[in-house]
Amino acid sequence: MSDTASPHAYVHLTAGGVSVVLDVTGGRLPAIVHWGAALGDLNVADTLALAQANIEPPAGNVVDLPVRLSILPEHHTGWVGKPGIAGHRDGVDWSPLFTTTALTVDGAEHRPSPDAELVSAGAGTVRVTAHDAVADLGLTLDVELLPSGLLRARAEVTNTGSSFYVLDGLQLAFPVPPQAREILDFAGRWGKERTPQRRELTVGIHEREGRKGRTGPDAATVLSVGVPGFGFGRGEVWGTHVGFSGNHRHYAERLFTGFQVVGGGELLLPGEIRLSDGESYGTPWIYGAYGDGLDAQAHRFHDHLRSRPTHPRRARPVTINVWEAVYFDHDLARLTDLADRAAKLGVERYVLDDGWFRYRRNDLAGLGDWHVDETVWPNGLHPIIDHVRSLGMEFGLWFEPEMINLDSDLAREHPEWVMATGGRTPVPSRNQQVLNLGIPEAYDHILERMSAILGEYDIAYIKWDHNRDLIDAGTAPHGRAGVHDQTLATYRLMDELKRRFPGLEIESCSSGGARVDLGILERTDRVWVSDCIDPLERQQMNRWTMQLLPPELLGSHIASGTSHTTGRYHRLSFRAGTALYGHLGIEWDLATATDDENAQLAVWIDLYKRHRELLHTGTMVRADEFDPTLLVYGAVAGDRAEALFFLAYVGRSDVSPRGRFTLPGLDPDRRYRVRPVFAGEPDEGLKPPAWFNVPPQPQPTVTTPPGGGRADGLSAGSEVPGVSMTGRALAVVGLQTPASFPDDVVVLSVTEET
Ligand code: DGJ
């Protein structure tokens, strides 16, 4: 029974095979009673029983009342893990006790009642408001279960007192059941983003702080805790993702009581948030992704992103980006020739990278001077853009709006716009500094410059770069920490440009893939996964970036044979076969490609165009590895009538032959034909297994076939019958793995037989 005017209810949200049961009783902040597999219909008695079953028994030498963990963990309850709020008012009001004042579910206010009630919804939004009259703080908590089964929550705290409230942190936490004892999150560095790492969740805190002022190549990205041994297709996992592009933290914590949470929020620098009377601070969305297996977890993110009205829906255009082709060597004749060659292959978008603006002949100067360089482009960008457009391609342009070179007119005119603290210039990185977009005049200047360029030229797409960490990123005049304001200003700038230029697409690039998060994805349409385009590396980076993003958002290019970042050489079939499962592009000086390579590229581009709808709307599946040198993954159409699978040979196996692989995700009761697709020449090491059913070839009279062709007759464009099997047999029994040279991809088309 509740004797206050506070809400007194349980809320059951269920969608996409997930249930979230919230306890909003007795004037207390919402606590999650259950987050995980759907529980079916619940009545009030069921919910009360669930809540009761969740109360911990007394233990030795702890507080005398059961500790109740709310989404904003509260220290006053006896919770001795990381608290949800860290802050104070000149040393006091640091341990708030909030009392709830209102509860709304899907916008409808729930009226307080003496007996706890149950509010049931499918996907839905819960808002709880609360107040601490002693600490003079107001609080709003939003908890949402999205139709994909993805959970997300955010908090806003308001200073209702008359003195400053200094907020040091505001983070949210979701409980994780005790059987989840293994952590998976991501690390990484430039050129090798999102490398998975696993460890046991032991007592203590596993905390990943992002202090780079950008998401970072090493961001935790999705921090999951699961049943030990969880894989793509099996094992429950509970993960969290902070949808923010500035400083942030993700953590998993296990207490001495065995209680476990995953959580996160923005990481606030000292003094960054000082709330005066009536001022508020809001967290970004903190996501909770449950799944039985990592694929199921990833599908919740993918389905959510794909359901957004702003999700790019038109066919993802084949792109050429000129960076690795010309770097800073901007020459109209060369760039025009590149456009001609690209258009001939079927490329649909041409992106002019770094180097087009004043003083930008290398990476020492020019950032901030967003005027077309008159020395290199005497007639502006019109000649190249007109040419690109006349070839039927869209035009895209590179910007790095948040940065400034000290060697620029802008820095000479406004040295006070450079972020700094302590009366000194921050350590340079890539010879550049950070432009303080938190200063309204600096923000207005950049908005005006970018609008002028976008207004003058026919530009469909911005490659938006961000090439350094924010170190000593203070804001004028006193050098107070300014990362929070800078991050929000960037968001505003993107939003405003999209408002001014409807249809404009933006790629989030940051020294490659250092800005991949759902905050930036609210206003961008693609990410550049990594500056490393070596397919062996990209097999891993693309695979794991897809834990958060669907393939259509991943910039995935075919580069020159020798990788510019690793120096390794790879066959075109490996480079193109790897790039195919993403938003395809080319990043290669086509003038140096042979006629044969150009011809094969055209076939790969055609293959991409024929399958991009399937690849970009289908369900991603990744088979659990039985041999680390073979990756099996693909896209299964929503109606499961077709699929495209990839066998990526990323090393030499210690056994030969490898044995069978399976194809998960198909309809067990339907029959499918599986056959290889040869876009380019099959690698010489490919030994067709019996199930390819390659038609018998006339026996050559000499050992080497005339013309040096293959004895089995396979070549680019070969069509072989393949094999017909049920989805069940393909998932349970599988097929013998074709033998192949390492570092190659075999593409398999799977079509339903009726
Ligand atoms: C870093 C990006 O990741 C590259 O693709 C390229 O745009 C360079 N910056 C340009 O400076």
In short:
The chain is α+β, with helices and mostly antiparallel strands and 754 residues long. The protein is 18% helix and 30% strand.
Bound molecules: (2R,3S,4R,5S)-2-(hydroxymethyl)piperidine-3,4,5-triol
On the 0 to 100 scale, the average pLDDT is 96
Shape: globular
CATH architecture of the domain at 7-307: Distorted Sandwich
**CA gyration radius, whole angstroms:** 28 Å
| CATH fold label of the domain at 7-307 | Beta-galactosidase, Chain A, domain 5
Question: Regions with pLDDT < 50 over 5+ consecutive residues?
Answer: none
CATH superfamily of the domain at 7-307: alpha-galactosidase from lactobacil brevis
The SS-based structural class is: alpha+beta
End-to-end C-alpha gap: 61 Å
Query: According to CATH, what is the class of the domain at 7-307?
Result: Mainly Beta
Helix content: 10-25%
Which percent band covers the strand fraction? 25-35%
Question: Main sheet?
Answer: 11 strands, antiparallel
Give the number of DSSP strands.
Answer: 41
Count of separate DSSP helical elements: 12
Binding site for substrate: 190, 353-354, 430, 463-467, 509, 531
Domain Glycosyl hydrolase family 36 N-terminal: 29-275
Keywords: Glycosidase, Hydrolase
Enzyme class: hydrolase
